[in-house]
């Protein structure tokens, strides 16, 4: 990783002056909060250092200092420029008060989109950490409640359970005990038992560049972890008016801190993303639950890693990581809108099933899925998981479709059945 040039905080502006160039370069650099490795190529080599020094001077004037733990001097800086303010306003409007859940999503949509987003987030968060499987196989495992057959599937199932746990506990404060519970959930059956749900007890853990094998970060020593994580919990739970931090900014800082402190032997990345998700839900950003944030991160994994490194290298300037996370949330929201748009186009096909006598919304959805994929089969457990209903309700829904011969029931063993397209389906709907 290339380190930026040194500069003096009391030096005058050397490159950015009152000119058209000033506006162009400032906008180009600060709108994306570029690091030195990009800034140096914007102007001729002999001028690049002066441009960087000017940018650093402007950034420093905008810095706010945050103190996470005074005893071990864990502190950092961040700045919110006009470009970030605009992006935060956009997210505030669209994730909170701007669009009400009932206006954006119907009841049946909420079940469908929420289930899909939970699965997507679980799958892609695992893939960031090296899980190897296909989305089709992973979703089938989650929908049908199958047991994972390898570590990758176990990681995905763990993330799925973790997100469900967070959704149920989103209004609670964080404690070390809840941190341990999150870690237990994300690492179940993938880590030695003695390392599950406890802080690391050695300094053997290093953050490596996966390609070069280079050590890119040495976390704080393990004897500091109890104090640091106590401070982390206080920082998570408190946001006083006199030192207020915008919730999306703070969620990003919390995400960074888990990666930086690296309190666990393994599972730090999954824990960090889970807590990012938790903090946004806790602070009213309900739409977060419908997004696949990790899918965007996976597509930009190099940028994700660089956001960590640039922050640590450049004066613990968290702005790099905050800008990246805001970009991720914005893209995840755009992806959701595109997904909803595509599903809305299917409504005409879906509506014909809703018009059937004595067919409820869930049953109409099942029939729609059969039409989409005639080779797809269902289980009672899958219906229970998808619609968040009781086993008995799921069984009633699907058995009624069997009685109408829209589905047929195939025995697997004495207790289990699969449900496939029935004899009357094509005669009725094709």
UniProtKB/TrEMBL annotation:
<dbReference type="InterPro" id="IPR036597">
    <property type="entry name" value="Fido-like_dom_sf"/>
</dbReference>
<dbReference type="InterPro" id="IPR003812">
    <property type="entry name" value="Fido"/>
</dbReference>
<keyword id="KW-0804">Transcription</keyword>
<dbReference type="Pfam" id="PF08220">
    <property type="entry name" value="HTH_DeoR"/>
</dbReference>
<dbReference type="InterPro" id="IPR001034">
    <property type="entry name" value="DeoR_HTH"/>
</dbReference>
<dbReference type="InterPro" id="IPR036390">
    <property type="entry name" value="WH_DNA-bd_sf"/>
</dbReference>
<feature type="domain" description="Fido">
    <location>
        <begin position="174"/>
        <end position="327"/>
    </location>
</feature>
<keyword id="KW-0805">Transcription regulation</keyword>
<protein>
    <submittedName>
        <fullName>Fic family protein</fullName>
    </submittedName>
</protein>
<dbReference type="Pfam" id="PF02661">
    <property type="entry name" value="Fic"/>
</dbReference>
<dbReference type="InterPro" id="IPR040198">
    <property type="entry name" value="Fido_containing"/>
</dbReference>
């Amino acid at each position: 990783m290339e380190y930026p040039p040194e500069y003096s905080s009391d030096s005058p502006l050397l490159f950015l002056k009152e000119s058209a160039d000033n506006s162009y370069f400032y906008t180009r650099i600060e709108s994306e909060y570029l690091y030195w490795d990009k800034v140096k190529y914007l102007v001729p080599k002999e001028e690049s250092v002066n441009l960087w020094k000017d940018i650093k001077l402007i950034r420093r004037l905008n810095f706010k200092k945050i103190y996470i733990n005074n005893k071990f001097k864990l502190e950092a800086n961040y700045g919110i420029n006009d470009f970030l303010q605009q992006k935060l306003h956009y997210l505030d409007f669209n994730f909170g008060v701007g669009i009400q859940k009932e206006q954006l999503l119907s009841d049946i949509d909420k079940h469908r989109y929420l289930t899909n987003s939970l699965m997507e987030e679980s799958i892609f968060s695992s893939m960031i950490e090296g899980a190897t499987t296909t989305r089709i196989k992973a979703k089938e495992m989650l929908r049908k409640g199958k047991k994972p057959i390898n570590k990758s599937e176990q990681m995905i199932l763990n993330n799925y359970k973790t997100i469900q746990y967070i959704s149920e506990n989103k209004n609670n404060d964080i404690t070390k005990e809840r941190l341990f519970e999150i870690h237990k959930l994300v690492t179940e059956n993938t880590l030695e038992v003695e390392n599950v749900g406890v802080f690391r007890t050695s300094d053997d853990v290093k953050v490596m560049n996966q390609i070069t094998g280079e050590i890119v970060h040495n976390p704080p020593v393990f004897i500091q972890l109890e104090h640091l994580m106590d401070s982390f919990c206080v920082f998570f739970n408190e946001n006083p008016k006199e030192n207020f931090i915008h919730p999306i900014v703070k969620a990003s800082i919390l995400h960074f801190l888990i990666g930086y402190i690296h309190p666990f032997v393994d599972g730090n990345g999954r824990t960090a993303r889970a807590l990012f998700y938790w903090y946004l839900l806790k602070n009213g950003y309900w739409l977060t639950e419908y997004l696949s944030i990790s899918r965007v991160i996976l597509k930009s994994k190099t940028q994700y890693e660089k956001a960590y490194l640039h922050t640590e290298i450049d004066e613990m300037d968290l702005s790099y990581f905050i800008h990246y996370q805001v970009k991720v949330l914005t893209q995840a929201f755009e992806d959701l809108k595109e997904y909803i748009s595509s599903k809305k186009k299917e409504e005409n096909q879906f509506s014909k099933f809703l018009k059937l006598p004595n067919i409820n919304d869930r049953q109409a959805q099942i029939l729609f899925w059969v039409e989409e994929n005639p080779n797809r089969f269902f289980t009672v457990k899958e219906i229970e998981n998808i619609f968040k209903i009781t086993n008995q309700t799921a069984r009633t829904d699907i058995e009624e479709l069997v009685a109408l011969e829209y589905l047929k029931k195939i025995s697997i063993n004495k207790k289990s059945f699969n449900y496939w397209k029935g004899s009357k389906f094509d005669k009725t709907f094709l």
